[in-house]
Amino acid sequence: MNREKIKKAKRIVIKIGTSSLILPNGHLNLKNIDDLAFTLSSLQHEGYEMILVTSGAVGVGLNVLEMVKRPTDMAQQQALAAVGQVELMSLYNQLFSRYQQKVSQLLLTRDVVDFPESRKNATNAINALLSLDIIPIINENDAVSVEEMAHRTKFGDNDKLGALVTVLTDADLLIMLSDIEGLYDKNPNIFDDAKLIENVTEITETIMKTAGGAGSRFGTGGMTSKLEAAKIIFDADKQMVLTNGARIREIRDVIDGKKRGTYFEKSENKKRIL
Ligand SMILES: Nc1ncnc2c1ncn2[C@@H]1O[C@H](COP(=O)(O)OP(=O)(O)O)[C@@H](O)[C@H]1O
Ligand SMILES: N[C@@H](CCC(=O)OP(=O)(O)O)C(=O)O
What we know:
By secondary structure, the chain is an alpha/beta fold. It has a single domain (4-273), classed as Acetylglutamate kinase-like (Carbamate kinase, 3-Layer(aba) Sandwich), CATH 3.40.1160. Helix content is 44%, strand content 15%. It is built from 12 helices and 8 strands. An 8-stranded mixed β-sheet has the order 3-4-2-1-5-7-8-6, with helices on both faces. The longest helix is centred in the first third of the chain and has 25 residues, at 74-98. The radius of gyration is 18 Å and the shape is globular. The model has no long low-confidence stretch (mean pLDDT 92). It binds adenosine-5'-diphosphate and the ligand N[C@@H](CCC(=O)OP(=O)(O)O)C(=O)O.
């Protein structure tokens, strides 16, 4: 499948997972964070409209408070996220400003996307920031969004948030950065002979069955949540590339339509039928 459509993308959402921001020993992955700031800033300077959906509040919070394990208590996790989010944004602010790029922070809850009025307000804010040439950096508002029955405030995970932001902002492309090359035909953590899938045109039962859980102690959703996000992307007729966050400067290759990671794009035939 050729990737011509990617080359036309102008507004691009990048979702980066905790596993690309935190090293296995719990320290911040400064190289990746710096590469991210450099790459997004230079693309923005060239005229692309970049939006960053970042995870890492809880992971960075653990680092700041020198804790090894994520606490099980919900309020403790919320507190950790509140601490980590400040540190994460402070770091982004420093590094992006080194590349002459202004950034901003938006912390969203699920109800913002569900209620038409607040959805419109969030979209307007993001559009206004982009028109001012400021990169919006978005995370879930983990300090206040917890699982509730009547009033839905939680997205579930940031893969879904990344997909919803892509739809909300009518972006042309979602690039999802993880700690792995892309989607494999089986969990590569378990099977040595797992093979990379280059293109996915539909989320079938067989594709869902390839997915296993998170690869690091910091990641949350694993591959299943990335495929759930891909469903949102397909339903909205958007495109997504899942690729390795270890080589962030390759984002440029992805945008140039080169074969990197796994490309999720509904086949033309399918689009005609629907
Ligand atoms: N079929 C699969 N293809 C690729 N990765 C898979 C698959 N099944 C399970 N995984 C695991 O999913 C992990 C990525 O998810 P996760 O740890 O949640 O990362 P992130 O923090 O980037 O969101 C990979 O490191 C890998 O171990
Ligand atoms: N909002 C959470 C991210 C949760 C999440 O989905 O993490 P990840 O699987 O690393 O993308 C945080 O900032 O810690």
